[in-house]
Design a protein that fits this description.
Helix content: over 70%
Structural class: mainly alpha
Order of helices and strands: HHHHHHHH
Radius of gyration: 29 Å
Number of domains: 3
Strand content: under 5%
Number of strands: 0
Distance between the termini: 46 Å
Length: 157
């Protein structure tokens, strides 16, 4: 199968249908779970299940971190959200994700600080750094060979 035929297959709807046709065979191949034999499809299915469990665990860790990080929730509301996540885990996670404001005051403050830090970092130009190097050389803090070496590094950026 060459690249042109792969692109043509991806452009049509036949590839998703072919994948959907393989799925029942994938499930049928896993019918020996619990027996002494372990097939390739058993291992593949176990990997898929493991991936989704890891994803669920990561979502819950992220939600717990978000609940504890927020300043707009009081301690009582944090306890209530944690209990909801423990009692009805997946439904509670959906409720929290839907009810959480898109942008809290804390999120806005953090975004503003990040923007200010980027502007401050971008505000230092090569010309400013060369001027500082020249001042250091003129004051005697660095020697002429050191100045030339630092200047070459600066101009190479």
């Amino acid at each position: 199968m060459n690249l042109v035929s792969v692109r043509a297959a991806l452009g049509r709807r036949t590839l998703p249908l072919a994948i959907l046709a393989v799925v029942p065979f994938l499930f049928a191949a896993c019918n020996q779970v619990g027996t002494a034999s372990l097939t390739f499809w058993d291992i593949m299915w176990s990997m898929v299940v493991f991936f989704f469990w890891m994803m669920a665990i990561f979502i819950f860790i992220s939600l717990f971190a978000d609940i504890f990080r927020r300043n707009d929730l009081s301690g009582g509301w944090k306890v209530i959200w944690i209990l909801v996540l423990f009692w009805i885990p997946f439904f509670g996670a959906l409720i929290y994700i839907i009810s959480r404001p898109k942008m809290t005051a804390q999120d806005l403050e953090m975004a503003t600080q990040a923007t200010a830090a980027q502007k401050a970092a971008a505000g230092v130009s090569v010309a400013d750094q060369l001027e500082k190097l020249t001042q250091l050389r003129d004051s005697g803090a660095i020697s002429v060979p050191e100045y030339e070496q630092l200047k070459a590094k600066l101009l190479a950026q």
